[in-house]
Amino acid sequence: MRILAIHPSSDEGIGYSGVDYSMSLFLQIPPGLLALLGGLVTWSVTALGAAAVFFFPQGRERLLTGMLGFAAGVMLAASYWSLLAPAIELAGETSPRPWLPAALGFLSGGVFLWATDRLLRRLRPGKGLSRTGLLIFSITLHNIPEGLAVGVAFGALGAEPGPERLLAAAAVTLGIAIQNYPEGAAVALPLLREGKGRFRSFFLGQASGLVEPAAALLGALLVSLVRSLLPWALSFAAGAMVLVAARELIPESRVEGGDAYFSTMALMAGFALMMVLDVAFG
Fold this sequence. Notes:
The structure is a single chain. By secondary structure, the protein is mainly alpha-helical. It has one domain. It is built from ten helices and two strands, in the order ββαααααααααα. The protein has a two-stranded antiparallel ribbon with strand order 1-2. The chain is globular and about 55 Å long. The two termini are 19 Å apart.
């Protein structure tokens, strides 16, 4: 990182680092407001990813079908590196069996989506959750614990204010924001393939990230309580994402496209991209 220095005039005895001065200004902002700003940053990158629908070429049915596989790969990778692995690590801080909340939360996420679909079918015979609804719902669930993570990181400034804690919170926000770009595209592009239209696909894609600012603010306000619940929330979202990928995205990408290898390689590309982003910036 290059540090910009503000050099004093000859009659001043003290020099100030531009970075230090900026950090001191940020440290004067209430942690809750910083968390909200961090959540807005991560949401804006989700919207940027969803905006890919405006640049995607028309009439590329095979390519759009491949996006179903790509979305499945992104979701499978995120379910482990963004959700399950951090859940196990967080649970290990307080429990001798860190795998237990991760496993129970993971299964609960899948059961919850299954039960919701069954309930809707009873209330509206023949009309359960659509693939579009499942996709948006699962990504939105995934974004809630990500927003909480941003909020917890900035909320910790209330107890331990300092440049190191601020940089750590900024790093968490940056890592989640970078990961949100392919996630926004992974929601919006499959919707475009289903004929939702570019503007509607973009709107639904960015809407999946709107929960992050609210979740970040909640995480900052309830930082002590939320930290104990995070392993459950993270693994719950992972279970929901795996269910959608396995039940909806992967079968549809193989059946409708006519080229199983193309959609499978797209899945692997999405998985690899998300894995690299999670490991490099997580």
